[in-house]
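Entry 14: structure prediction run for Transcription and mRNA export factor ENY2. Input pasted below.
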Amino acid sequence: MGGSPEGTRGNVLDARASEGQGEGGSLRTKGVLYEHVKNELIESGHKDRLYKELAQSLIDCGWRDELKEHCKEVMKEKKSTSELSLEALTKEVIVHAQKSVPDSVKANFFDKLKEAILLNQSGESED
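Run finished. Output tokens:
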């Protein structure tokens, strides 16, 4: 339909409440909310900024270097057992990467994400 921005935007919490899903929500509602928030962050330019800040935080805390070393170790281990495939390496590295992000980096990222969402919402109410 295209319509006005006001027709496609709205308070994320209002959207959840209008679905009648309460605090937990259904998977469908969560998917809709995720897409809405993602689109708002993209449109506002916050997504790129958050991504760059997260990448820099991971470099600054040494996570990236540690992950590189982990990859080298996995490759050495798998090379000797002929189990080295891109799929196996990727799967193992992703699990390790996700588990090894420092809690402080996660907390900082989520604080900035929440701030960006709130900024988008307050900007919408001024339209």
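Notes: Helices lie at 5-8, 12-18, 27-44, 46-60, 63-81, 86-100, 103-125. Will compare against the previous run tomorrow.
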